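FAQ

Q: What does a record look like?
A: Structure on top, sequence underneath. For example:
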């Protein structure tokens, strides 16, 4: 990720939920993306509640539109060299292909950007709990 700011980055809501610190991820992504937002089929209030809770200021969100219409609209409105969609499922990859976006699985994005996945934190927490249980008499 080159820091040029010539990229529009869209996160599927489920991809954001898979990250340990979605707000920090958004802040980090702003350093190398011109526009960052959320795409989801969920009702607007679900996305708004999640972004508010995580202190995420998005440049765009899908609103009442479907994901395909949202990606098409964002691509049309935000003219950057690259449009990258971060998702979690094969359907997300197919959608990105259909709408002429680059697709990046959240695990690969997290590895490249050094973001922590929520599952990694949960696994660490479970390991600590298991260690603590071993200390019981």
């Amino acid at each position: 990720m080159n820091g040029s700011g010539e990229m529009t980055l869209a996160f599927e809501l489920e991809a954001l939920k898979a990250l340990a610190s979605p707000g920090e991820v958004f802040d980090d992504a702003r350093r190398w993306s011109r526009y960052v937002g959320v795409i989801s089929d969920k009702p607007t209030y679900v996305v708004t509640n999640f972004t508010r809770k995580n202190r995420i200021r998005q440049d765009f969100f899908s609103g009442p539109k479907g994901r395909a219409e949202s990606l098409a609209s964002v691509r049309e409105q935000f003219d950057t060299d690259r449009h990258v969609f971060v998702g979690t499922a094969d359907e997300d990859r197919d959608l990105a292909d259909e709408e002429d976006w680059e697709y990046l699985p959240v695990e690969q994005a997290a590895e490249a950007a050094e973001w922590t996945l929520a599952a990694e934190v949960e696994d660490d927490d479970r390991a600590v709990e298991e260690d603590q249980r071993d200390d019981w008499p």
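Q: Is there anything notable about this one?
A: Helices lie at 13-17, 22-30, 44-53, 67-77, 90-98, 106-113, 118-134.
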